[in-house]
Amino acid sequence: MNALKISGVVAALLLVGLFLIPAVSQPAAAATDYYIVARVVNVSGQPMQDVEVTISNVTGTITYSLKTDSQGTAMQQVPSGTYNITARFDGYYANRSYSSVNVDTGNFYANFTMIELQGNLTGFVSNGFISIPGATVTLENSSIAYTTHTSQPLGEYSFSGIPGGRYNVTVSDTGYLSNETTVRIVAGVQSWLNFTLQPLLGQIIGIVNSTTSAGRIIQLADANVTLSGPGVFMHTVTNSHGIYQFMSLKAGTYTVKVGKNGYSPGQATVVVQLSRIVYLNFTLVSLSHSYLLPLSGFIGKLDLNHSLMFVALALSIVIVSGSVTLLNKSYNWRERQDGKGSRQEERQSKENR
Fold first, then answer.
1. For residue 108, what is the enclosing H or E element?
2. Of the residues 4, 44, 173, 213, which has the maximum number of CB atoms within 10 A of its CB?
3. Are 170 and 179 contacting, i.e. CB atoms less than 8 angstroms apart?
């Protein structure tokens, strides 16, 4: 009897165990994981290696930082959720980014095209005094080369859309020594580089000015400038800024003459050396009374205006003195005439008696 009860209890426990053991040993269901796969290429469609891909969920609790392999691929297993995905590479920018991407039904594929940042280079070319339009400017390295020309009127050049890196810049123009230097173009940055060219032969450059009665300096446009020297005679006119220039001169002594209607002429003699620039300016005196200049006069240390005033005063004194003298002479003559008349009347009276 007791044995029968014990057997029944054991059997019952075995049955309970058959149901409980599977329930206890069954693990809890894990959250589903998916992959985010990033593919990165350049504008030519070639894969880019070592591009930094950042994956972060919108709550900011999970962030992954990956690098693409030689195939331009980077992938990361992530829990289901919502993510932001970006790509970054020095000197480039991505064509897009991904925001609030839901990854809860399968893998997500992010495609990026990296576009190279480009720099710009701008500058001016002159001979140290005036600009040089038409000069040739070359920008080059071992793989690419660009060429442009300086523009009117400031001698400006510009290169745009240049990949970052080091370049050689060469500037040349007829009658000048070439100038070359190295520049580093930074992606996304505007760079500036100016050049000064030295002449192969000698040059004479200058400005023709005048001065108003108020003392203001003005530049004379269209003034005639001639140059004579060793076997050479040249003629030019000043531009709108009063500037003139003679180029490609042999070494020697030259005479420069300047003239313009309504102004006194100017002249100077200079010595020109090879590969040198002679700067020679002129200030012409206006012949109009409204433009009398405060230059040296012809009386002592007086300027021109005061010299003329002194002459006018002296002339006035001479005229007044002459007038007084004439009046005195006229008065004396009348007195003498009156005296003669009185004496004649006396003689006539005596004769009548």
1. strand 108-116
2. 173
3. yes
CATH of the domain at 141: 2.60.40.10
DSSP letter at 297 equals -
Domain span holding position 82: 33-116
Residue 167: inside a domain, yes or no? yes
Task: Check: pTM over 0.90? Answer yes or no.
Answer: no
End-to-end CA distance of the chain: 224
Residue 172 domain-assigned? yes
Q: Are 141 and 163 in contact (CB under 8 A)?
A: no
Strands (E) across 127-265 are located at 136-140, 145-149, 156-163, 165-172, 179-185, 190-192, 195-196, 202-211, 217-219, 224-229, 232-237, 243-249, 252-259
Q: Is residue 122 part of a domain?
A: yes
Would you place residue 170 in the very low, low, confident or very high pLDDT band (cuts 50, 70, 90)?
A: very high
For residue 106, what are its two tokens?
A: 């399968």
**Taking a C-beta distance cutoff of 8 angstroms, is the pair 280, 206 a contact?**
yes
- Whole-number Å distance between alpha carbons of 118 and 160: 8
Count of domains in the chain? 3
Distance CA 87, CA 95 (A): 9
Q: Is residue 108 part of a domain?
A: yes
